[in-house]
Input
Amino acid sequence: MAEKEKKKGRVKAAWKGFRSELKNITWPTWKQVLKNTLVVLVIVIICAVIIGALDYAFSGGIRALTQLFTKTGA
Output
């Protein structure tokens, strides 16, 4: 029975600590959230374009090498 009381006390203390920490959080404003979201979207789009361009270039290079080495003297 004492073990159950100890667990109950720990849970209560943990919950109290959680609530006090939750009060210390400073949440961003809606304007900051929108600004950060736009920054993330722009960076993702830039990275996607760069990766797409590299993929296109490398696939073209591999295609050219394949054609170069598979010519059968025609």
The chain is about 85% helix and 0% strand. Residues 1 and 21 are 31 Å apart (CA to CA).
